[in-house]
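Posting for a labmate who doesn't have an account.
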Amino acid sequence: MALSLKVAAHSEIGLVRSNNQDSAYVSPTMIAVADGMGGAAAGDLASAVAVRELRRVDALNRPEAPGERLAGEQMLEALGGALTKANDALADLVVSDRSLEGMGTTVCGLMFSGSQYGIAHIGDSRGYLLRDGEFRQLTHDHSWVQSLVDEGKITPAEAAEHPHRSLLLKVLNGQPTHLPDYQLVDAELGDRLLFCSDGLSGMIDDDVIAELVASTSDLDAAVAALTKAARAGGGLDNITLVLADVVEHDDELEAATPRVLGAAQTVKIPRAGRPRSDDADWREDTSRLPIDAVALAAAGSVDNPPAGLIDPDQFETIRYSPHLPSRRRRLLPVLLTVLALLVVTLVGFWGVRRYVQTQYFIGPDEKRVAIYRGLPEQILGRGLWSKVETSSIQVADLPPYYASRVESQDLQYGSLEEAHQSLSELGRMAERCIAERAAGTPAPTAGATPASPGSSASPGVSPGVTGTSSSPTVTPSGTATPRPDLEACG
């Protein structure tokens, strides 16, 4: 029974890289992921070259009749031819432009016949298969730490945390000895395939990947969940993944337009040709002499890798070096927050200070009455006032009610002029009280009592408070009634 692929894919820069050097390709008959690396501007170019050659062979394998597709070993031969051409193209590009030296790319992909997967793999990008609830890795990493695991020198858990886990034994980089792995796997209805760069598999454990891959039947939702998990795991690399379900044959799926993602969408691949042998500037490319990868892997110790391994980050300082937050950069948000709070505090302090400078109150200065500028309050033990002047008025000479208000600093004003007016009223009260106390009786008044301090508009309003104090009333016989209690001298 012929089957079809239902595909969802995603590629992005990640959280710290400066550009996307991953590429991906999806069609009804092929899915592939390539993770580029190295060179001043070449990782994206290398992955784009690999995808270009895979697209070309896929286009030749999409006849109108599904039964005419390549199958079995034919798929592996086609994939091998495509990757050989890609490898040769990379070698030619480096010879033509030495600034591209060091570029390379992983490749992990498959060709689909409708009943089998022809899988090609080189590097540490991965292919996974979820079948009948069992999740397993289809590919085998071409990395130094994986060789240590294979030899029993370290465990898979130790490999996941090893400081040199990014070092690779082989990639497509123009060297003729770097050969991909190929395999055929029978397809089954209900299979779910995941092909990804190490921007996903290097950020989260396989157990988490398996859980998320199986978490929903919605491919787009699963892709989104995997991408979110990779970001939460650090997002230190480009994140590229292709998720595909094997479903019953569907003519609409078979007619789907192939898609390119990541760097291959935008990178323009230059034409390259090897220089003539008589070119004086050409020299033999000794970096491409055959290397025994097995012997190379065995040459190092568990902690010290041998020389000659492929370091994906070796040439990444120009365009692709990780911009991991330094301690200074991690502190920057905190410093900015503190600075913002400081600015708000200073602005608030300035506003409060400006307001305080417009306020006045009357209070005691030892035994005399004084005018103060500010508010009769304290902040952190510091008073919000300064003395303007001290009068000759004795607090004890005032009526008890006003003497109490002076002591409690309860007479407050919005201007110095108002404070002076009230001080004058208090002075007149004090003079009257002195006279009354000297005579032993309240002094008679022939009219209204002067307005209370703080009230220039309404005679008798107590300064700084709401309330009234009626003026003495003149009786028909001409004698005055007693003064209000508030102004009583006591």
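Reply:
Got it, the structure tokens are right above this. The chain has twelve helices and 16 strands.
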